Every structure is written in structure tokens, then in C-alpha cells.
């Protein structure tokens, strides 16, 4: 059945490419022939999995670039097909019919809920975890359930754990993986750190004894330096520690070396810390990491900028409170007059429960500099109500048609911010491009 599984995946993938399609369907077909096909592949070289709530796509892609620059022949699911079927498509389409994977390194972005379907069946050498936040409750359930699903497959894991040492929900994984070695990355206290936070936080209690966690400082949400008030659970010594953080210049240092982050925001610097941790584990020079940061592509919809005739439009994806809060901070730092267009959908990929908008500090953009807020998307009225309850005194418009909403956000202003949920992102991008024509 192994040969049939690989052949069916390859043939279906080729046929789909002929008509300009890709995706996970070939992997679904292959898995119907052999549910255990992943465990039957022959892989020579490191296998790195990247998971977490926020940042896994950018982090996985930069790790891929890191290994490519270091001379590896890498297979990666760059387009983000991160469920079991999509990962099966990626691996089987790059395998011989006998199951030999045609590469000497593999980097896979993996959805958090799918770690349990992937890690036990591949010879994983490194598991990179960026962070855990509450996200899409209708699909991922409560975060505790998600983390437990990962912890259940860790007792026999013997590879490297590359963990965000400032996230107690990530650090706890090392306690379930007694056969693994952990490398921790994080960030030192800096001018942006705060002693207290009102942001949505899932790191209030010790995962070992259940007592309250005390924080020396927070970077954002529950990310920071913590220790248990009752037991010895605490922020571990960081193997990679970012210092001298400058969010205006987007620079930091690590072990005395200066770096420039390819993306805006503190959360993006944590992605860079993960890359430096992988480089350390794999014995790759920091000069390679510098080149990766310098040439990292701008993902569509991740602080993507559009400019024409003096008008600047910036597009960002939002999908959960923590990620949205970081986007709000970026907009807040821009003190120039602007309009904001928010596109809120509630399709399955977005998360059908939109209550997260009440855990997001949209108040950060409710300033005198924000001249108008335009709400559109399937749940435009819900978004407008949230902005109204937030105390915004300016113009709140609800516009059904996306193109009309984008057009309104461009009128009589030189700067526009568009924030969109997952299924709204590419349509919003297309509307921006059309508006810029």
C-alpha cells in the first residue's frame, strides 16, 4: 500500500497543478491508501517541526532559508498547508516510489492540533514552539486542551525542544519530554517591558502546581519573566537572549552581535530569536542568520505596505486577541492622521466565535489621529458595535461591499490601515490593489 499511496499522491498533485491548483487533496488521497504512510518514509537529515499560535509561518520559512543558505537541500511546506493531509502532500510529492525523501533536511510548519498526528510518525530532530495563546475556541478549544494534546506525544520524544522561554505555556512542555534536550530563546527586560498587563493572558497559574505565577516583567500578553509563587517553576536560563530592543529601528543584539529584524513588532523579534536558537542547535553561523533576516520576504498581509501618489496603505492579518493587540500597538505608534478599515469574517478558517474582539484592545486605535473607522465583512455590525462600546467618538461606517469599504477608507486621507481576518485577507489585498490602480 505504501507504493500506491505515494503514486496516488504524486499523480493527483500533478493533475491539480495542470489546472493551477495545489493544496492538501493529494495527501488526503494518499492517506486513504495508507494511513501510516508518514512512518514508512526514509529520511536522511534533520527534521524540524514549527508550531505555536502566532508566528509559525514566518518562523518556519526563515528556518528553511537558514538551512538552504547553510547548504542543505530542504523540503518545506512554505505555503502553509500545515494539517496532516497538507504535510503528507508535501512529503510524498518529494519522495521516490520506494519512500526515499529527496532532501537532506525537512522543515514543516505544523498546526498545533496536528502535532499529535505528525511528531510520533517522523524522525523529528527539532520541535520549535513559538508561543501558545487562546485562538479560535470553536476549533482549537481551550488552550489547556491544545497543550495537553501535544504533551501526550512528548514522553518518548528524544530530539531537541527549541522553546520560547518567556512563555510558561511553552516551557511546561519540557517537563513532559524527559528524554529530550531543551534550548530556550527569549528576550531580556527592555524599555517596552511593563510591570503589569491588562491584556488577555493565559499564563496566570503554574502548570505544575496550580498556584499563581508572579512576573518580574511582561513583554506582551503573558510573555515575560515569571516564577511560581509556590514551587520552582520559572523562566529557565535563556540560551538565546535578545537585548537592546529598539522597536522604532527594528534592531536588537544577541551575544554582542547587532541584528535587524525583517518585520515590525516585538512579537516578530521573538521569531528572530527562534531562528538564532535553531542556528545554535544546528551549528550554523550567525552570519547566515543575518543574511536570512536581511532578505526575508514580506508575507502577504503581514504589515504589507502599498504606496501610490503619496498614499500609504498597510495591511495586517488579525485572528486572535494577542496577535491583534500587537497590530493595534503598531497602528498606535503611528501618530499621523489615518483611517482604519476592519474586515471581520466568521468562516471556519477565521473561527466562527468572534467574541475575541472583546479581548482585543481596539481602544489603542481610538485616538484623535484616527479620523474614521470603516467596518466590513460578514460580521461588520459586530465590529462596529465593539468600536462604539470602546468609546470612539469619530465616524464609524458599516459598508457591506468590501471594495466600497476600502474606497471609503482611502478618501480624504493619506494613510490607511486595513486589518482583516484569515478568509478576508486576500480579498482585502485584492481590493487594495484595485484601489491603488
Automatic annotation (TrEMBL):
Keywords assigned by UniProt, alphabetized: ATP-binding, Cell shape, Cell wall biogenesis/degradation, Ligase, Metal-binding, Nucleotide-binding, Peptidoglycan synthesis, Zinc
Matching InterPro entries: Lipid_II_synth_MurT, Mur-like_cat_sf, Mur_ligase_cen, MurT_C
Enzyme Commission number(s) of this protein: 6.3.5.13
A single MF term (Gene Ontology): ligase activity
Metabolic or biological pathway: Cell wall biogenesis; peptidoglycan biosynthesis
Mur ligase central domain: residues covered: 50-205
Its biological purpose: The lipid II isoglutaminyl synthase complex catalyzes the formation of alpha-D-isoglutamine in the cell wall lipid II stem peptide. The MurT subunit catalyzes the ATP-dependent amidation of D-glutamate residue of lipid II, converting it to an isoglutamine residue.
HAMAP family linked: Lipid_II_synth_MurT
Similarity annotation: Belongs to the MurCDEF family. MurT subfamily.
Name this protein carries in UniProt: Lipid II isoglutaminyl synthase (glutamine-hydrolyzing) subunit MurT
Organism field: Absicoccus intestinalis
